[in-house]
Design goal:
By secondary structure, the protein is α+β, with helices and mostly antiparallel strands. The chain has four helices and six strands, in the order ααββαββββα. This is SnoaL-like domain-containing protein.
Length: 131
């Protein structure tokens, strides 16, 4: 699998999350995947596809009507299993009560066509203020 194919999978994963198609998004996640947010003090890491699905399913629909991502830059790594993305989000809060926006740098590792690591860096202060 080449870097462009991995990037396409990550974009599809994020776009499906943004559309709140969480089950479809998690089809890209390996059974033994790990997801973590290093700048959040808790909770996590989330281990396993089911736990990752549960986390997204219990949070995203509770707070957002939808979330849109704009992609700024992608980097492929020499190990041929990792891509790093820079992207922005804009989300409509539930009940159209406002918007949430943030910037991200995220590391995505693969085994074949499945995500095995999702490590997302973003400004948690923006998340705390908006929720």
């Amino acid at each position: 699998m080449n870097p462009e194919q991995r990037i396409a999978i990550v974009k599809d994963f994020l776009n499906k999350l943004g559309a709140l198609e969480i089950e479809a998004a998690c089809e890209h996640v390996a059974e033994d995947a790990v997801m973590l947010f290093p700048y959040l003090s808790q909770p996590g890491p989330y281990e396993g596809r089911q736990r990752i699905f549960e986390q997204f399913n219990s949070t995203l629909p509770a707070f957002w009507e939808r979330m849109e991502f704009s992609y700024r830059q992608w980097y492929s790594c020499d190990d041929d299993t990792t891509v790093i993305g820079e992207f922005d989000s804009r989300a409509i809060q539930k009940g159209n009560t406002g918007t949430y926006a943030n910037q991200y740098i995220a590391v995505f590792q693969f085994r074949g066509d499945k995500l095995t690591l999702i490590k997302e860096y973003f400004n948690p202060a923006l998340l705390t203020v908006k929720i």
